[in-house]
Amino acid sequence: MNLNDEQNYIVNLKLMKITGFYHLISSRAPKYFGFNVYKVTAAIEVMTGIFSIIMLFLSSYYYLDNTNELMSHFMLVVAIFFSTLKIFWVSRNSETIWNNMDMTCINFLSYTGHKKEILKKARAKSISTTILFVILWSSVTVAWSISPFFVKDVYLNIKFKDETRRFRYNSLNYVYPISEEFYNEHFLYFYVVEMLSVVFWGHGTVAYDTFVISICITIAFQLKTIAVSYISLNDKKGDIKNLKDNDLEAMFNLKLLIQDQQNMFKKIKEIYKIFEPVTFVQLAAQSMLIILQAYMIFINHYNGFSLLSVPIIKLIVTVAPNIIHLFITCYLYTNINHQQDSMNFALYSSDWTAMSINYKKMLLFTMRMNDAEKLKLKISLRKIVNLEMFASVMHLTYSIISVLAKSYGNTNTK
Fold first, then answer.
1. Global pTM?
2. Are 89 and 278 in contact (CB under 8 A)?
């Protein structure tokens, strides 16, 4: 990949460079003393994430009597663990990711009759969607980072054996084995530590998710381009030359299209090997986060917090991107599955009836080969990632909130 040809790639290369993701996976990244600077930075982020998880686990012991903070800590453990896993997994598989980035090039397909306009639309969609998620995840990062300065007079009561210490509200609310006077007097130092943990979470989430979204859009539109070329291969009304009178040329072009399709399938298999473990964790973690955040919004509001209070605003700002991200993820994989399934229909829709028997045999062989390909991303032997999964998560969330609302309503009535 060339640093100066961003316009020829579907993925948002400019954003990948800004976040450092490009140099993290690049074989040409700057090195000092033999070390990739970006991989060293990624390692620091991973260690910071591990430190945050340990601190949150240890702090949870002191919040056993505070359900809201205990739930908040559990939610943060899940979120930070997932973000840390993303950075670690990308760093570990950087070479494989880099070797498959060529499929994001608009000129990756070898057949010259492809409609490049489709891939240019894919680039525009990739850029707009990734920018949307930069805004969404950045808003979450900013909300959690600056929240302590909007609740200056809020203190958390922490029990240490026979005494209770009052610590000022912070971004993540770690509990330190120090006196309340020392903590509150040097609050800014502790704030910086927790704020950096939030920023590292935001960076890891933005860098990985914008990359995955771009790749999914790339795969779907590359497959769509091949399907459109199959349909118009021998069509007089299409943009491609009429090949019915030249069977050899028709066979040659069909072979090129089959080769393009097989190259894409090979790339999809390799990239899915990387995506599958992370996507499985993501769907489990994000589903859990959506349910937890919706639960906490309901409980906090029921306990007297205004919808405009800082704790609820933080949760609303957080749950909205999670819902949108889960929907977009399921939608993109559904679209990829649809494009894969449409290959045989595209082949059948081409004007093949007037072609030679050899051409028809090749067409039939390709259709059988497509039927044999099983490229859908799965989280179990039977469940694939699609919009039905998103619908089931939202239905479960709605059911839990409905049950809570009824139970609290009955309690008030009594």
1. 0.86
2. yes
